[in-house]
Specification:
The chain has one domain (2-99, 136-158, 180-236): 3-Layer(aba) Sandwich (Rossmann fold), CATH 3.40.50. Helix content is 32%, strand content 26%. The chain has helices spanning 2-5, 19-29, 57-70, 141-147, 166-175, 185-195, 219-236; strands spanning 12-16, 42-45, 48-52, 75-84, 94-102, 106-108, 122-124, 134-135, 152-158, 180-182, 199-208. The longest helix is centred in the C-terminal third of the chain and has 18 residues, at 219-236. The protein starts with a helix and ends with a helix.
Length: 237
Amino acid sequence: MVSNLLADSTRLLLAVASPVEFKAVLQGAGVVDDEVPPLWETRELDSISILHTGVGKANAAGAVARELTRQAYGGVLSIGLAGSFDQKVSLCTSFLGINHYMLDEGAIVNPKGAVVKSETGWMSIEDAGWATVSVKPDHGVLMNFFRTLVDNVGDVGTVSTISGTNDLSAEYQKRFKVRIETMESGAIAQTCSILKVPFADIRVISNFCGERTKDNHDFPGALKKMAEISAKIFQQL
C-alpha cells in the first residue's frame, strides 16, 4: 500500500509536535513503551518514521527540513491537536487540512497611515510582497487517501499566538476563512512545498478557539481520538 501512495520513496514521515501527541501516535501504532525521542529526532517503525518536531513554526519547519535532507521520504503527514473556529467542527473530531495560511505573520498598521495603508488595520507579509503566508499542497494520491480517514476537511490557519481570547479569535477569522487553528501545519506545508515532497495534515479538535470554559475543550478525548486515527494509519500503511 505504501508504495502506491508515496513518491520516490516508500517511507512516510509523521511530524508530531509535543510529547503527549507523540505518545498518542505510539499508542495507535501499538508500541508497548511510550519513549519520546529528543527534539528533532525520530523513532523508526517499519516504513514510517515519527519525528518529534517540538511546538511552533520554527521547530516544525526546522525539524522537518532537517529530516527531509537526512533521509528520503515519499511523503510527510503532520498530525496533532488543533483548535476549532467552526462550531460545526466539534470536539474530538478529526480534520484534514486543504489549504494553509499563516494567520499572524504581518503587521498591524494604522488604517489611515500615510506610509502603509490597510482598510482592516492588518497587512500580511504576503500582501506586503515580502514572503508567502499561504500554501496550497498538491491534492494527489496521499491527500486523497487520508481524506477517507477523517470526519471533516477544510482550510487551516497556523499561528504563533494561540487565540485564547474571543477578540483574538475573531481577529484571526477576519484575515483568512479557515476552520481550525494550529501552531505547525502551515510551516510544515511550506517546507514540503519548497522541497517538493507530498504533504498532508490531520488534526483532532481539542478545543474551540477563544476563551476557555469547562465545556469547550476536551484534551483527553482528543488524544484518544488521535490514537485511534493513528491506528488506522498504521493498519493501512
